[in-house]
Design goal:
The chain is of the alpha/beta class and about 400 residues long. Helix content is about 40%, strand content about 20%. A hairpin with a 2-residue loop joins strand 11 and strand 12. Bound molecules: zinc ion (ZN).
Length: about 400
Protein backbone atom coordinates (compact mmCIF):
# COMPACT_ATOMS: atom_id res chain seq x y z
CA UNK A 1 0.00 0.00 0.00
CA UNK A 2 1.48 3.36 -0.97
CA UNK A 3 1.72 6.13 1.58
CA UNK A 4 -1.07 8.19 0.02
CA UNK A 5 -3.43 5.19 -0.14
CA UNK A 6 -2.79 4.53 3.53
CA UNK A 7 -3.48 8.18 4.38
CA UNK A 8 -6.76 8.03 2.46
CA UNK A 9 -7.78 4.73 4.03
CA UNK A 10 -6.94 5.88 7.56
CA UNK A 11 -9.10 8.99 7.03
CA UNK A 12 -11.97 6.93 5.58
CA UNK A 13 -11.84 4.38 8.39
CA UNK A 14 -11.66 6.97 11.16
CA UNK A 15 -14.37 9.03 9.43
CA UNK A 16 -16.69 6.01 9.17
CA UNK A 17 -16.10 5.05 12.80
CA UNK A 18 -16.81 8.55 14.11
CA UNK A 19 -19.75 9.31 11.81
CA UNK A 20 -21.73 6.24 12.84
CA UNK A 21 -24.50 6.63 15.38
CA UNK A 22 -23.48 3.43 17.17
CA UNK A 23 -20.00 2.02 17.93
CA UNK A 24 -18.60 0.20 14.90
CA UNK A 25 -16.52 -2.97 14.88
CA UNK A 26 -13.58 -3.77 12.62
CA UNK A 27 -15.96 -6.01 10.65
CA UNK A 28 -18.51 -3.17 10.28
CA UNK A 29 -15.80 -0.78 9.09
CA UNK A 30 -14.55 -3.26 6.49
CA UNK A 31 -18.05 -3.27 4.98
CA UNK A 32 -18.56 0.53 5.22
CA UNK A 33 -15.19 1.35 3.66
CA UNK A 34 -15.27 -1.52 1.13
CA UNK A 35 -11.96 -3.00 2.24
CA UNK A 36 -11.01 -6.48 3.37
CA UNK A 37 -11.32 -7.37 7.03
CA UNK A 38 -7.54 -7.73 7.25
CA UNK A 39 -6.97 -4.22 5.85
CA UNK A 40 -9.67 -2.63 8.02
CA UNK A 41 -8.24 -4.38 11.05
CA UNK A 42 -4.71 -3.09 10.33
CA UNK A 43 -5.98 0.46 9.85
CA UNK A 44 -7.98 0.28 13.08
CA UNK A 45 -4.89 -1.01 14.91
CA UNK A 46 -3.01 2.12 13.77
CA UNK A 47 -5.89 4.38 14.83
CA UNK A 48 -6.11 2.67 18.22
CA UNK A 49 -2.32 2.96 18.65
CA UNK A 50 -2.64 6.69 17.90
CA UNK A 51 -5.39 7.03 20.52
CA UNK A 52 -7.95 8.14 17.91
CA UNK A 53 -10.17 5.11 18.52
CA UNK A 54 -10.47 3.01 21.63
CA UNK A 55 -11.79 -0.49 22.08
CA UNK A 56 -14.88 -0.89 24.23
CA UNK A 57 -14.00 -3.98 26.17
CA UNK A 58 -16.84 -5.41 28.24
CA UNK A 59 -15.99 -6.90 31.65
CA UNK A 60 -16.59 -10.45 30.39
CA UNK A 61 -14.17 -9.77 27.50
CA UNK A 62 -11.36 -8.75 29.82
CA UNK A 63 -9.35 -11.92 29.41
CA UNK A 64 -9.71 -12.03 25.65
CA UNK A 65 -7.04 -10.32 23.55
CA UNK A 66 -7.83 -6.89 22.03
CA UNK A 67 -8.13 -6.43 18.27
CA UNK A 68 -10.94 -8.92 17.72
CA UNK A 69 -13.14 -8.19 14.66
CA UNK A 70 -16.28 -7.92 16.82
CA UNK A 71 -14.98 -5.46 19.45
CA UNK A 72 -16.90 -2.13 19.32
CA UNK A 73 -14.78 0.99 18.78
CA UNK A 74 -15.40 4.39 20.35
CA UNK A 75 -13.78 7.79 19.75
CA UNK A 76 -10.46 8.13 21.60
CA UNK A 77 -11.16 10.01 24.82
CA UNK A 78 -7.48 10.72 25.38
CA UNK A 79 -7.18 13.04 22.36
CA UNK A 80 -8.42 16.61 22.66
CA UNK A 81 -8.04 20.20 21.43
CA UNK A 82 -7.92 23.56 23.19
CA UNK A 83 -10.60 26.06 22.13
CA UNK A 84 -10.32 29.78 22.94
CA UNK A 85 -12.65 32.72 22.61
CA UNK A 86 -12.34 36.47 22.94
CA UNK A 87 -15.65 38.30 22.97
CA UNK A 88 -16.80 41.78 23.84
CA UNK A 89 -17.95 40.57 27.24
CA UNK A 90 -15.75 37.57 28.07
CA UNK A 91 -12.70 35.44 27.41
CA UNK A 92 -12.99 31.67 27.56
CA UNK A 93 -10.88 28.53 27.26
CA UNK A 94 -12.22 25.00 26.85
CA UNK A 95 -10.76 21.57 26.16
CA UNK A 96 -12.89 19.28 23.97
CA UNK A 97 -12.08 15.61 23.40
CA UNK A 98 -12.55 13.49 20.29
CA UNK A 99 -15.92 12.26 21.60
CA UNK A 100 -17.07 15.90 21.61
CA UNK A 101 -17.17 16.20 25.39
CA UNK A 102 -16.02 19.43 27.06
CA UNK A 103 -13.35 18.23 29.52
CA UNK A 104 -12.35 21.65 30.89
CA UNK A 105 -14.00 25.05 30.82
CA UNK A 106 -12.87 28.44 32.14
CA UNK A 107 -14.65 31.74 31.53
CA UNK A 108 -13.78 35.24 32.69
CA UNK A 109 -16.30 38.03 32.12
CA UNK A 110 -15.00 41.46 31.10
CA UNK A 111 -15.86 44.60 29.19
CA UNK A 112 -13.65 44.52 26.12
CA UNK A 113 -15.25 47.34 24.18
CA UNK A 114 -12.50 49.65 22.92
CA UNK A 115 -9.96 47.52 24.83
CA UNK A 116 -6.21 47.10 24.33
CA UNK A 117 -5.37 43.68 22.87
CA UNK A 118 -2.28 42.83 25.00
CA UNK A 119 -3.93 42.63 28.47
CA UNK A 120 -6.98 40.80 27.09
CA UNK A 121 -4.78 38.23 25.33
CA UNK A 122 -2.70 37.85 28.50
CA UNK A 123 -5.90 37.05 30.43
CA UNK A 124 -6.82 34.55 27.75
CA UNK A 125 -3.40 32.88 28.09
CA UNK A 126 -3.90 32.56 31.86
CA UNK A 127 -7.29 30.89 31.30
CA UNK A 128 -5.69 28.57 28.74
CA UNK A 129 -3.11 27.58 31.38
CA UNK A 130 -5.91 26.67 33.79
CA UNK A 131 -7.81 24.66 31.16
CA UNK A 132 -4.61 22.79 30.26
CA UNK A 133 -3.99 22.04 33.94
CA UNK A 134 -7.47 20.51 34.14
CA UNK A 135 -6.81 18.50 30.99
CA UNK A 136 -3.44 17.13 32.08
CA UNK A 137 -2.96 13.64 30.69
CA UNK A 138 -4.85 14.31 27.46
CA UNK A 139 -2.96 14.27 24.16
CA UNK A 140 -3.58 17.70 22.57
CA UNK A 141 -3.87 18.04 18.82
CA UNK A 142 -3.60 21.85 18.94
CA UNK A 143 -5.55 25.01 19.69
CA UNK A 144 -8.08 27.21 17.94
CA UNK A 145 -8.98 30.82 18.71
CA UNK A 146 -12.33 32.44 17.84
CA UNK A 147 -12.36 36.22 17.40
CA UNK A 148 -15.26 38.55 16.53
CA UNK A 149 -13.72 40.08 13.43
CA UNK A 150 -11.86 39.65 10.16
CA UNK A 151 -8.77 37.47 10.35
CA UNK A 152 -6.01 37.72 7.75
CA UNK A 153 -2.74 35.97 6.97
CA UNK A 154 -0.07 35.84 9.62
CA UNK A 155 -2.43 35.39 11.43
CA UNK A 156 -3.47 38.98 11.96
CA UNK A 157 -6.73 40.26 13.34
CA UNK A 158 -7.45 42.85 10.67
CA UNK A 159 -10.43 44.39 12.34
CA UNK A 160 -12.88 43.69 15.16
CA UNK A 161 -15.15 46.75 15.29
CA UNK A 162 -16.75 45.99 18.66
CA UNK A 163 -13.44 45.29 20.40
CA UNK A 164 -11.94 48.36 18.74
CA UNK A 165 -8.97 46.21 17.61
CA UNK A 166 -7.25 46.44 14.25
CA UNK A 167 -4.01 45.09 12.83
CA UNK A 168 -3.25 42.84 15.82
CA UNK A 169 -0.36 40.43 15.19
CA UNK A 170 -1.56 37.06 16.55
CA UNK A 171 1.66 35.28 15.61
CA UNK A 172 3.22 36.35 18.90
CA UNK A 173 0.90 35.34 21.72
CA UNK A 174 1.97 34.79 25.33
CA UNK A 175 2.73 31.22 26.47
CA UNK A 176 1.19 28.66 26.41
CA UNK A 177 -0.33 29.94 23.17
CA UNK A 178 2.98 29.70 21.34
CA UNK A 179 4.90 26.73 19.95
CA UNK A 180 2.71 23.65 19.43
CA UNK A 181 -0.31 25.43 20.90
CA UNK A 182 -0.09 28.49 18.62
CA UNK A 183 -3.80 28.67 17.79
CA UNK A 184 -5.45 28.44 14.40
CA UNK A 185 -7.36 31.73 14.40
CA UNK A 186 -10.81 32.08 12.89
CA UNK A 187 -13.95 34.15 12.89
CA UNK A 188 -16.12 33.39 15.91
CA UNK A 189 -19.33 32.81 13.93
CA UNK A 190 -17.64 30.46 11.44
CA UNK A 191 -16.29 28.44 14.37
CA UNK A 192 -19.48 28.58 16.47
CA UNK A 193 -21.40 27.27 13.45
CA UNK A 194 -19.36 24.05 13.67
CA UNK A 195 -21.21 23.23 16.92
CA UNK A 196 -24.38 23.00 14.80
CA UNK A 197 -22.81 21.32 11.76
CA UNK A 198 -21.23 18.59 13.94
CA UNK A 199 -22.80 16.69 16.82
CA UNK A 200 -19.25 15.57 17.69
CA UNK A 201 -15.93 15.48 15.81
CA UNK A 202 -16.51 13.54 12.60
CA UNK A 203 -20.23 13.13 13.29
CA UNK A 204 -22.55 15.41 11.27
CA UNK A 205 -25.31 17.28 13.10
CA UNK A 206 -28.95 17.43 12.02
CA UNK A 207 -28.38 20.43 9.71
CA UNK A 208 -25.83 20.61 6.89
CA UNK A 209 -26.96 23.80 5.10
CA UNK A 210 -27.84 26.87 7.14
CA UNK A 211 -27.10 30.50 7.97
CA UNK A 212 -25.81 30.80 11.54
CA UNK A 213 -26.10 33.99 13.56
CA UNK A 214 -23.79 34.51 16.52
CA UNK A 215 -22.66 37.31 18.74
CA UNK A 216 -23.56 39.55 21.62
CA UNK A 217 -22.94 43.29 21.26
CA UNK A 218 -22.48 42.76 17.54
CA UNK A 219 -23.84 40.05 15.28
CA UNK A 220 -21.58 37.58 13.54
CA UNK A 221 -22.72 35.32 10.76
CA UNK A 222 -21.66 32.18 8.97
CA UNK A 223 -23.05 30.49 5.88
CA UNK A 224 -22.67 26.71 6.10
CA UNK A 225 -23.10 24.47 3.05
CA UNK A 226 -22.53 20.70 3.21
CA UNK A 227 -21.38 21.07 6.82
CA UNK A 228 -18.64 23.59 6.03
CA UNK A 229 -18.60 27.36 6.51
CA UNK A 230 -18.40 29.13 3.14
CA UNK A 231 -15.73 31.67 3.98
CA UNK A 232 -15.12 33.30 0.60
CA UNK A 233 -11.90 34.31 -1.16
CA UNK A 234 -10.18 35.79 1.92
CA UNK A 235 -12.11 34.04 4.69
CA UNK A 236 -14.28 37.08 5.37
CA UNK A 237 -17.69 35.95 4.11
CA UNK A 238 -20.78 35.75 6.30
CA UNK A 239 -20.73 39.22 7.89
CA UNK A 240 -24.51 39.31 8.14
CA UNK A 241 -24.28 41.75 11.06
CA UNK A 242 -23.07 44.43 8.65
CA UNK A 243 -25.72 43.90 5.98
CA UNK A 244 -27.53 47.22 5.53
CA UNK A 245 -31.07 47.28 6.89
CA UNK A 246 -31.55 51.05 6.49
CA UNK A 247 -28.97 53.19 4.68
CA UNK A 248 -30.34 56.25 6.50
CA UNK A 249 -29.93 54.54 9.87
CA UNK A 250 -27.38 55.27 12.61
CA UNK A 251 -23.61 55.04 12.14
CA UNK A 252 -22.12 51.61 12.89
CA UNK A 253 -18.73 50.87 14.54
CA UNK A 254 -17.69 49.51 11.13
CA UNK A 255 -18.10 52.96 9.52
CA UNK A 256 -21.23 52.11 7.52
CA UNK A 257 -24.79 53.09 8.45
CA UNK A 258 -27.92 51.15 9.39
CA UNK A 259 -26.20 47.74 9.78
CA UNK A 260 -28.23 44.81 11.14
CA UNK A 261 -26.38 44.73 14.46
CA UNK A 262 -27.59 48.27 15.23
CA UNK A 263 -31.12 46.81 15.41
CA UNK A 264 -30.56 43.26 16.66
CA UNK A 265 -27.29 43.38 18.66
CA UNK A 266 -27.72 42.93 22.44
CA UNK A 267 -26.87 46.52 23.28
CA UNK A 268 -29.13 47.89 20.54
CA UNK A 269 -32.00 45.69 21.74
CA UNK A 270 -31.59 46.84 25.35
CA UNK A 271 -31.47 50.47 24.31
CA UNK A 272 -34.56 50.11 22.06
CA UNK A 273 -36.40 48.53 25.01
CA UNK A 274 -35.50 51.55 27.15
CA UNK A 275 -33.22 49.51 29.44
CA UNK A 276 -29.92 50.86 30.74
CA UNK A 277 -26.65 49.03 30.15
CA UNK A 278 -26.15 45.50 28.88
CA UNK A 279 -29.25 43.41 29.61
CA UNK A 280 -29.29 39.62 29.38
CA UNK A 281 -31.43 38.39 26.50
CA UNK A 282 -33.25 36.05 28.88
CA UNK A 283 -34.38 39.09 30.88
CA UNK A 284 -35.61 40.79 27.71
CA UNK A 285 -37.46 37.60 26.74
CA UNK A 286 -39.18 37.62 30.16
CA UNK A 287 -40.26 41.24 29.64
CA UNK A 288 -41.71 40.36 26.24
CA UNK A 289 -43.62 37.44 27.74
CA UNK A 290 -44.92 39.79 30.47
CA UNK A 291 -46.24 42.10 27.75
CA UNK A 292 -43.86 45.03 28.38
CA UNK A 293 -44.68 47.32 25.43
CA UNK A 294 -41.12 48.69 24.96
CA UNK A 295 -39.59 45.21 25.08
CA UNK A 296 -42.18 43.88 22.61
CA UNK A 297 -41.49 46.77 20.21
CA UNK A 298 -37.70 46.29 20.50
CA UNK A 299 -37.91 42.57 19.72
CA UNK A 300 -40.35 43.12 16.86
CA UNK A 301 -37.99 45.74 15.41
CA UNK A 302 -35.08 43.33 15.72
CA UNK A 303 -37.08 40.52 14.09
CA UNK A 304 -38.00 42.79 11.18
CA UNK A 305 -34.38 43.90 10.73
CA UNK A 306 -33.23 40.28 10.87
CA UNK A 307 -35.90 39.36 8.29
CA UNK A 308 -34.77 42.11 5.91
CA UNK A 309 -31.07 41.20 6.19
CA UNK A 310 -31.58 37.43 6.13
CA UNK A 311 -34.02 37.45 3.21
CA UNK A 312 -31.24 39.08 1.18
CA UNK A 313 -28.85 36.34 2.24
CA UNK A 314 -31.35 33.55 1.46
CA UNK A 315 -32.30 35.09 -1.91
CA UNK A 316 -28.63 35.23 -2.92
CA UNK A 317 -27.49 31.87 -1.55
CA UNK A 318 -30.55 29.54 -1.39
CA UNK A 319 -29.82 28.41 2.19
CA UNK A 320 -33.33 28.63 3.70
CA UNK A 321 -32.56 27.57 7.28
CA UNK A 322 -31.53 30.23 9.80
CA UNK A 323 -30.00 29.13 13.11
CA UNK A 324 -30.16 31.67 15.93
CA UNK A 325 -27.13 31.43 18.22
CA UNK A 326 -25.39 33.83 20.59
CA UNK A 327 -27.71 36.27 22.39
CA UNK A 328 -30.41 35.72 19.72
CA UNK A 329 -30.79 32.13 20.93
CA UNK A 330 -32.41 33.26 24.19
CA UNK A 331 -34.86 35.42 22.24
CA UNK A 332 -35.49 32.75 19.65
CA UNK A 333 -39.11 32.01 20.48
CA UNK A 334 -39.93 35.73 20.71
CA UNK A 335 -38.18 36.53 17.41
CA UNK A 336 -39.35 33.54 15.40
CA UNK A 337 -42.95 34.54 14.39
CA UNK A 338 -42.11 38.01 13.00
CA UNK A 339 -38.84 36.77 11.53
CA UNK A 340 -40.45 33.86 9.69
CA UNK A 341 -43.23 36.17 8.49
CA UNK A 342 -40.75 38.68 7.05
CA UNK A 343 -38.70 35.90 5.45
CA UNK A 344 -41.82 34.39 3.83
CA UNK A 345 -42.73 37.80 2.37
CA UNK A 346 -39.27 38.58 1.03
CA UNK A 347 -37.72 35.28 -0.05
CA UNK A 348 -38.62 34.61 -3.68
CA UNK A 349 -38.57 30.81 -3.30
CA UNK A 350 -40.56 30.80 -0.02
CA UNK A 351 -43.55 28.96 -1.57
CA UNK A 352 -41.39 25.98 -2.51
CA UNK A 353 -38.86 25.97 0.35
CA UNK A 354 -40.36 27.91 3.27
CA UNK A 355 -37.56 29.57 5.25
CA UNK A 356 -37.15 27.97 8.65
CA UNK A 357 -35.83 29.54 11.85
CA UNK A 358 -34.11 27.14 14.25
CA UNK A 359 -32.94 28.06 17.74
CA UNK A 360 -29.45 26.72 18.47
CA UNK A 361 -29.09 24.36 21.40
CA UNK A 362 -27.62 25.84 24.54
CA UNK A 363 -23.92 26.33 23.96
CA UNK A 364 -22.86 29.50 25.75
CA UNK A 365 -19.26 29.03 24.65
CA UNK A 366 -20.06 27.89 21.11
CA UNK A 367 -17.17 29.91 19.55
CA UNK A 368 -14.57 28.32 21.89
CA UNK A 369 -16.05 24.83 21.51
CA UNK A 370 -16.19 25.37 17.73
CA UNK A 371 -12.55 26.49 17.70
CA UNK A 372 -11.57 23.19 19.34
CA UNK A 373 -13.89 21.26 16.99
CA UNK A 374 -12.16 22.89 14.02
CA UNK A 375 -8.81 21.47 15.12
CA UNK A 376 -10.31 18.03 15.79
CA UNK A 377 -12.03 18.05 12.38
CA UNK A 378 -8.67 18.75 10.73
CA UNK A 379 -7.23 15.73 12.55
CA UNK A 380 -10.17 13.55 11.46
CA UNK A 381 -9.69 14.65 7.84
CA UNK A 382 -6.02 13.60 7.85
CA UNK A 383 -5.06 11.35 10.76
CA UNK A 384 -1.96 9.81 9.18
CA UNK A 385 0.70 12.31 10.40
CA UNK A 386 -0.70 12.02 13.94
CA UNK A 387 -0.68 8.21 13.86
CA UNK A 388 2.81 8.08 12.36
CA UNK A 389 4.20 10.48 14.97
CA UNK A 390 2.78 8.33 17.76
CA UNK A 391 3.95 5.02 16.30
CA UNK A 392 7.48 6.50 15.92
CA UNK A 393 7.75 7.30 19.64
ZN1 LIG B 1 -21.60 47.80 10.47
Amino acid sequence: MTRSQRATNLARTLGAALAAATPQTRADLAVTTSTTRATASRLVDDLVAGGLLQEQVRPDDARRPPGRPGTPLAPGRGVAALGLQVDVDRVAAVVVDLAGEVRAEHVQPGDHRASRPAPVLARLARLAHRALDDARGLDLVGAGLALPGLVGAGPTLLRAPNLGWSGVDLGRLPPPLDGDLAPAVGNEADLAALTVAYAAPGRPGDLADFVYLSGSTGIGGAVVVDGRPVVGRHGWAGEVGHVTVDPDGPVCACGSTGCLELYAGARALASAAGLAGPVASAELARLVEAGDASAVAAVEGAARALGIALSTVVNVLDVPVVVLGGHLRELGEQLRPALERTLSQRVLSASWAPPRVVVAERHPLAPAVGAALGRLQALVADPQPWCDARSAT
